[in-house]
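User: Here's a structure from my thesis project, written as structure tokens. My advisor, Dr. K., wants to see whether a designed sequence matches the one we expressed. Can you design one independently, without my sequence as a hint?
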């Protein structure tokens, strides 16, 4: 439980940090909640840690002029819960069950997104909200759509020399219903299956938009496009929801581990997708 030796450098500005990332053997540390356990288990052995944890410019949540919300990468779960982000039903649903008080006090939004644990909750929420992930490097700014960013287990679209600076969310919609439901591991809170749903009925009774994202099921959190397509245009009857939810794992290699074998996990993915859609429809204004 003792990491290998490493050099430690605390960045005092974003520019300084950007000058240090991308060099071989260098890893960025924010809250350290995911990285430090890996180092203690010697599954990660960086030669140098660049600590970005005190960069004030990466902290906080602000409303943009066009109504979108910008969440600084160093914003902790706890800070997020009392920020304007609480107006997003999905964030209100998901946050209380992430980790424990310590994790929520130190774990950052940017760290969770960059780490891309296959069972991480926030990426599914960001996928369902059509979020954007903003990254900076010495080469400039790059904006990634959440859909496509989470590429595999612990693998994202982020280049080696890029740092996540903020997450942008489209403004919350009053006419949307949303829900995040998860079957969680008792000890850690990580999702065995987690489902984030946003639904909209624009012109009356038929569903005109459905964003459905799952976590804990495959290599990485993903949008369940076949479920979304099956929901469009129907009224959300119990039969049509069940038929749509049956596609929750289409095209995904379902994981099996000590918490749930792949058959059980696949069944739970369908069950929780169905329940989350029902809950989201029940919350439509
Ligand atoms: C006991 C325990 C329980 C947990 N339970 C849950 C849970 O229920 N649900 C859940 O979703 N998560 C859970 N987590 C994971 C937790 O959400 C993450 O550990 C945390 O959010 C990571 O943020 P951090 O700032 O601590 O990242 P760090 O550990 O500092 O970094 C993680 C990785 O991201 C990189 N990184 C960090 N910031 C940036 C940045 N701005 N730009 C680019 N790369 C960056 C680092 O280099 C590293 O590779 C749990 C973790 C633990 C230890």
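Assistant: Designed independently from the structure alone:
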């Amino acid at each position: 439980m003792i990491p290998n030796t490493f050099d430690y450098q605390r960045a005092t500005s974003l520019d300084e940090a950007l000058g240090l990332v991308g060099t071989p053997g260098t890893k960025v540390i924010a809250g350290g909640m995911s990285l430090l356990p890996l180092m203690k288990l010697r599954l990660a052995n960086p030669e140098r840690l660049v600590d970005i944890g005190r960069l004030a410019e990466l902290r906080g949540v602000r409303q943009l002029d066009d109504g979108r919300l910008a969440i600084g990468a160093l914003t902790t779960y706890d800070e997020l819960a009392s920020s304007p982000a609480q107006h997003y039903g999905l964030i209100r649903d998901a946050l209380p069950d992430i980790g424990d008080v310590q994790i929520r006090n130190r774990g950052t939004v940017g760290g969770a997104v960059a780490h891309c644990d296959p069972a991480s909750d926030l990426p599914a929420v960001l996928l369902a909200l059509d979020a954007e992930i903003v990254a900076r490097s010495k080469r400039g700014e790059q904006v990634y759509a959440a859909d496509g960013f989470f590429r595999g287990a612990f693998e994202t679209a982020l280049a080696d020399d890029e740092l996540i600076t903020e997450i942008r969310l489209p403004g919350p919609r009053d006419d949307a219903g949303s829900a995040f439901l998860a079957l969680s591991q008792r000890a850690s809170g990580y999702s065995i299956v987690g489902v984030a749903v946003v639904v909209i009925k624009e012109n009356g009774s038929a569903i005109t938009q459905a964003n459905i994202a799952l976590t804990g099921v495959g290599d990485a959190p993903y949008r369940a496009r076949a479920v979304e397509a099956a929901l469009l245009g129907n009224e959300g009857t119990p039969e049509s929801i069940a038929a749509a939810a049956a596609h929750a794992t289409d095209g995904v290699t379902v994981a099996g581990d000590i918490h749930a074998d792949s058959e059980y996990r696949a069944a739970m993915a369908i069950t929780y997708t169905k329940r989350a859609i029902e809950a989201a429809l029940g919350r439509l204004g």
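When you compare it with your expressed construct, this may help: The chain is about 30% helix and 25% strand.
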